[in-house]
Amino acid sequence: MSDRPVPVGALLRAAPPDRLPEVVADLLRRHFAAGHVEVLVTDLTLRRLAPLLASDGPDTSPGAMRCLGSQRVGTETDIGGRARLHLPLSCWGERLGVLQVDLEGRPEPEEAEQLRAVADELAVALRAADRLTDRYRRAQSQERLTMAAELQWDLLPGRSLGDERFQLAGQLEPAYDVRGDHYDWALNGDRLTLTVLNGAGEGLDAALLTVIAANAMRNARRRGADLVEQAELASDALHARYDGGLHAATLLLEIDLVGGWVDAVDAGSPHCLIGRGSEISQVRLEQQLPLGMFGEARYEIERFRLEPGDRMLVVSDGVHAATAGGTTTFGESALITALRRTRLQPPAEALGTVMRSLRDFHAGTEPEDDAVMVCLDWRR
């Protein structure tokens, strides 16, 4: 290993956006005498990792998946003392994948710290390069997306976000055929804005409606508008386009990350649940008109409060109202049980567990609706 500092950030910024994995692999081989190097990115379902350097299929090895879930460096040593490191690739809480590095032996603490720094720099570069090349999106997609799903995934802010105050994650299902369901978030100082939206209609029509609603709310939010103004601008935009024929059931939330107060506008069907200790309860809000149902609709803010350690889950009707073969709904029979099982898991893993429970609930039958879940842990 060279004693000179490794200018990995400068190398990545100078590299073409589609060549970042090769730049890092070359650096690791030259400065750390690494053998095998692989950059693994998560697929859209978060159940597999796709290699960027090899032509092999998805990687589901336990070491890589443990690293993705725990967000901790993992080391496996073979009988000859050679070590395989799995380093998490994450940026502002977003889990992008895993950097896999083979070394002649376990790294010393200083070397391990340098390797973690390489992984961190690569994660930031991958996030920045995502819209400049199709390489990483192509690897993430194990199947061809529908046009509606392409619009929805491109509209998302990411799949995770967090710092020392909170951890947030969201997921869409079915990943390759999602239609009108959507979530959005933005962090500004001590205020976290979160929306979950269920657009009416089917296929591309539902996705286009969602695009209009989400961008109208973003337009209002980015000029400093509160939740009422965001809801009213989006409602007016949808009504002007569809004349009430299509609308979007939406829950708008703004969380004070210091005091835990949550401002809410409930404009439709998404449900909000709070996990506090061993108890899980639904937040009862006054349901107002879905966005776009009527012209010049007016909305009001309600408030509730989170306590440190609370978990908040927001789910669309494709989750809480899902039925399978005419049985009771998922919200009535299995959702609370799934949430209790995930209480010790971080939000991203918890969503995966609940989504698996939802797929098991459908028992192989095709869901009638797409589904969105967003999970927030408030740490204060």
Defining key terms:
Beta-Lactamase, 2 domains, phosphatase activity, 6-stranded antiparallel sheet, Phosphatase 2c, domain 1, 380 residues, alpha+beta, 34% helix, globular, 16 strands, 12 helices
Question: Can you give a write-up of this model?
Answer:
34% of the residues lie in helices and 27% in strands. The protein is built from 12 helices and 16 strands. The two termini are 41 Å apart. The protein is globular and about 65 Å long. It folds into 2 domains: 8-138, Beta-Lactamase; 143-378, PPM-type phosphatase domain (Phosphatase 2c, domain 1). A 6-stranded antiparallel sheet has the order 6-7-16-15-12-13. The protein has helices at residues 8-14, 20-32, 62-70, 109-129, 135-140, 147-155, 203-221, 227-242, 317-320, 330-333, 335-341, 347-362, and strands spanning 37-42, 49-51, 74-77, 83-91, 94-103, 160-162, 166-173, 181-188, 191-199, 248-256, 261-267, 271-276, 279-282, 302-305, 311-315, 371-378. It is an alpha+beta fold. The model has no long low-confidence stretch (mean pLDDT 91).
